[in-house]
Amino acid sequence: MEFENRKNMCKFGKITGYIVMYIVFTTVLFFALTYFNKIPSNWGYVNILAITSLIILFGTLLKFLL
User: Fold this and answer.
1) Burial tier of 30 (Cβ tally within 10 Å: 0-12, 13-18, 19+)
2) Burial class (CB in 10 A: 0-12, 13-18, 19+), 58
3) Where are the domains of the chain?
4) Whole-angstrom Cα distance, residue 13 to residue 20?
5) Taking Cα atoms as reference points, which of 18, 19, 43, 15 lies closest to residue 31?
6) Are 39 and 48 in contact (CB under 8 A)?
7) What is the spatial distance between Cα 2 and Cα 12, in angstroms, rounded to a whole number?
8) pLDDT on residue 1
């Protein structure tokens, strides 16, 4: 019983860490692109979130297929 609880906590930690690091990476990428004027001025944070989400989905799909 304790092993199963520990396994669930480990899975929760991995998912939480993945989400936190995704947000950190997207934020740093957004600020870097904004600082170097590499994105259009009318783009916001949501556009960068969408682009990074598509990259993650493509990578997951590729991993699933291979």
Assistant:
1) buried
2) exposed
3) 2-65
4) 10
5) 43
6) yes
7) 15
8) 54
Containing 48, the helix (H) or strand (E) segment is helix 45-65
Q: Which amino acid is at 42?
A: N
pTM tops 0.90: no
Quick: pLDDT tens for 12-52.
889 999 999 999 999 999 999 999 999 998 999 999 999 99
- Dihedral angle of Cα 60, 5, 17, 45, to the nearest 10 degrees: 80
Phi, psi of 40 (to 5 degrees): -60, 150
